[in-house]
Design a protein that fits this description.
Layout lengths: L9 H25 L8 H11 L8 H18 L6 H18 L5
Length: about 110
């Protein structure tokens, strides 16, 4: 009988769920703010939001791992810049998520 070693610790599940929730909330906030006038559109950020809303990451299970690992590197760029407003930071984060997935071939 073959032994299956697919055990994932509960703590990792909680961390993954928290990450998905965080990105989902960011996408929702981005969509709400984007609807206001005077906000400069960003095609890559919009594509990532559509990708996320359609839960297309399910096609590529490693997409969540890729985004999770890239998030600290992406956010580090924004810590040093105090010139940008919160929406610009959110928009650039979405754009960078898109670019990371595009580089890995996990988004169209």
């Amino acid at each position: 009988m073959r032994k299956v070693d697919d055990y994932v610790p509960v703590e990792l599940w909680r961390e993954a769920k928290a990450f998905v929730k965080e990105v989902s909330e960011d996408v929702e906030i981005y969509k709400i703010i984007q609807k206001t006038d005077g906000v400069k559109p960003c095609e890559e950020a919009d594509k990532f939001c559509a990708y996320w809303n359609l839960e297309s990451y399910e096609k590529y299970p490693h997409a969540l791992f890729t985004l999770y690992e890239a998030k600290p590197l992406i956010d580090r760029h924004f810590e040093t810049s105090d010139v940008m407003n919160a929406f610009e930071v959110l928009q650039l984060r979405m754009k960078n998520y898109y670019l990371v997935l595009k580089e890995k071939g996990m988004i169209e």
